[in-house]
Amino acid sequence: MCGIVGLYLKNPNLYEKLGEHLQTMLVGMTERGPDSAGFAVYGDQLSAGLVKLTLYDPAQATNWDGLAHRLQDDLNATAEVTARASHAVLIADTTHDAVANWLRTYAPAIRVMSHGDRIEIYKDMGLPVDVANRFGLAAMVGSHGIGHTRMATESAVTTEHSHPFIAGADLCLVHNGSLSNYNRLRAWLSRRGRIFATDNDSEVAAQYFAFRLGQGLPLSEALRAGLRDLDGFYTFAVGTRDGFAVLRDGIACKPAVLAENDDWVAMASEFRSLSALPGIDRARVWEPAPAVVYSWEAERMDRAA
Amino acid sequence: MTVQDSITVDLAEVSVRDLNQRLHHLTDGGDADWQILNPRGQHAIAVGLMDPVQITIDGPVGYYCGGMNQNAQIVVNGHSGWGVAENIMSGVVRVRGNASESAAATGRAGLVVIEGDASSRCGVSMKGVDIVVGGSVGHMSGFLAQTGRMAVCGDAGADLGSSIYEAVIYVRGDVESLGADCIEKEMTDAHISELAELLTRAEVAADPSEFRRYGSARNLYHFKVDHADAY
């Protein structure tokens, strides 16, 4: 059992409230996953030429300002860093690959939790309310976000094994369920160049979709390919730079409820997490059908435009 | 015993456990109507009731609402989560919105009415309960249904009535596909009048002559020596 939530705002007037609503939804899934929690928030798009990475230091011993200065000098780039508990958001005028390669040499203990030009990912052990408060979720601003509360089954309870899992630039995934063919799939993906950070089954799903997207498939087609190749139980919620998608397996043993009105689309494992959203009384509420991809993309004015 | 007309319990102030304990030990409200406010999708509301009380729940409920019910009349003014009225023994559970998966699963008797849509596996392993769905049901509904009746006014998803025993399923709309050993059967005048009685009791307006009837082909009932190698 785990809990997953997603909130995709169509009305930009609500962007200021994204974190507040996402926190309420996340905390509503505490009973489904008290081991750890995590969330991805999509904020303003960066200017061209900049990249944003969310970094995590397991030892919590990094001088983030010092790291940014060193990176500036070594890569001849400008870099800004903002620390939030064990995580830090780094914005630099270089590429993700350049930063990741530099980190491997200069600070190999540091993990990259997300990269892109909108996404930030925060995750940690503990009750969802504690994790959300630790990172200040309620005050975060953005257009959409997804979250996960974990009851661990397939791998250890650590920060790295918590969700969401990144699957490429501005792309992440949360999973409720368990996959049965993930070891074989991980070997198959490894042979095709994917590098794994954990032994978690959900990370295999994220890497699988990243691989399919890398082959040029649109997100909906990549998810449909997963229906064929991923064996097991799942409800996935996927966040992209401008979109949000939900997929359940063909048996649909793992719960999911969707709700939509003119202002937002929301998804949760259970209705409990939707019950406090503004306008929920008048929203259309339904369960996603098995093996059907539901996706929303760019239905709104871009805030940065 | 004091007889009261109405008792209101606000689940924003009282826990579900406290509410259920009061409903299990009806010393003061046996003849009263109960009004439950602010359920907010919480689980196991009004489970295991033994007395013929009238319960109205004002809003969406979570899992297992009205489970194992005996005698109580429960109305949910909202949606319900998984397993509403699971293993109901008697009485009535009515959901005025949509129901999630496994509605009335393993129900023994009584009546379950879903005025909106029911999701997957509605009536799974039902054992005598009557189920009336105003909208549609999802895939694998009536899976392993043993006895009882299910009437669906809308459509049915894939694999309807898979491995069904002696339960009867009436569907007015389209059936995406029939499950193993489930077949369409003749709709006689006797079936139409039986269905009319069920719809009337459920207070659901639908013309019984527009329904089709489904049940077991009974091919899975018997060991077939021709297939011995397959076992």
Describe what you observe in this structure:
The complex is a heterodimer of chains A (305) and B (231). With 305 residues, chain A is α+β, with helices and mostly antiparallel strands. Chain A is 25% helix and 30% strand. Chain A has seven helices and 16 strands. Chain A is globular and about 55 Å long. By secondary structure, chain B is mainly beta. In chain B, strands 1-2-3-4-5-6-7-8-9-11-10 form an eleven-stranded mixed beta sheet, covered by helices on one side. In chain B, β1, α1 and β2 (33-37) form a beta-alpha-beta unit. The longest helix of chain B has 14 residues, at 189-202. Chain B is elongated. The mean pLDDT of chain B is 94. At the A-B interface, loops of A face loops of B.
Brief write-up:
Chain A is of the alpha+beta class.
Observed structural traits:
heterodimer; A: 305 residues; alpha+beta; seven-stranded antiparallel sheet; five-stranded antiparallel sheet; 16 strands; 30% strand; B: 231 residues; mainly beta; eleven-stranded mixed sheet; 2 helices; 23% strand
Show the helix and strand layout.
The complex is a heterodimer of chains A (305) and B (231).
Chain A: E1 2-9, H1 18-27, E2 36-42, E3 51-56, H2 64-75, E4 79-84, E5 87-92, H3 96-106, E6 111-116, E7 119-125, H4 128-135, E8 144-150, E9 165-166, E10 172-179, H5 182-191, H6 201-214, H7 219-229, E11 232-239, E12 243-248, E13 257-260, E14 264-268, E15 284-286, E16 294-297
Antiparallel strand pairs in A: 1-8, 1-14, 2-7, 2-8, 3-5, 3-6, 4-5, 9-10, 10-11, 11-12, 12-16, 13-14, 13-15
Chain B: E1 6-10, H1 16-24, E2 33-37, E3 54-58, E4 73-76, E5 92-95, E6 111-114, E7 127-133, E8 147-152, E9 168-171, E10 182-185, H2 189-202, E11 212-216
Parallel strand pairs in B: 1-2, 2-3, 3-4, 4-5, 5-6, 6-7, 7-8, 8-9
Antiparallel strand pairs in B: 9-11, 10-11
